[in-house]
Design goal:
This protein is α+β, with helices and mostly antiparallel strands and 143 residues long. The chain is 43% helix and 17% strand.
């Protein structure tokens, strides 16, 4: 089992302190929200699609360190992402945390920093909130 220091490490603290695309955007094409009943964390996102890619993104993050860190990594990488790619990364994250799958790679490789969360089932939902919120937003526009 991972040590708590593996989860709450300096790199995650740094990520959580500077979340890209923080705040809501005006008149988004789609919005979605996700809430963790266990810890009370909530993430709400707004986004626009242009030419099949996410062109504008904003997120309101009221979450624990793990949710903030995941939101920071996603916020940094999401512009230009297709809905299919985002869903694939979200699926990889779920498999990484729940089934000991391999972490995302390429530009999403920093999500591997959250891999120790798989040993703490009660923290997984908050770590996945940003993906849940984005997928709900994409559902509203049929993407």
């Amino acid at each position: 089992m991972a040590d708590l220091d593996d989860i709450y490490n300096l790199k995650l603290l740094e990520l959580a302190s500077d979340i890209p695309h923080s705040g809501r955007i005006e008149h988004p094409g789609a919005t979605g929200s996700a809430h963790s009943k266990l810890c009370g964390s909530t993430i709400t996102v707004g986004l626009d699609l242009e030419d099949g890619r996410i062109s504008r993104f904003g997120q309101e993050v009221k979450a624990c360190l793990l949710g903030q860190a995941a939101a920071a990594i996603v916020g940094r990488e999401i512009i230009g992402t297709t809905p299919a790619e985002l869903r694939e990364v979200a699926g990889q994250m779920r498999r990484m945390l729940k089934e000991s799958g391999t972490p995302p790679s390429g530009r999403w490789a920093d999500l591997a920093l959250l891999q120790p969360v798989r040993d703490y089932k009660h923290r997984q939902a908050s770590t996945l909130l940003v993906f849940d919120a984005i997928e709900r937003a994409l559902e509203t526009v049929g993407a």
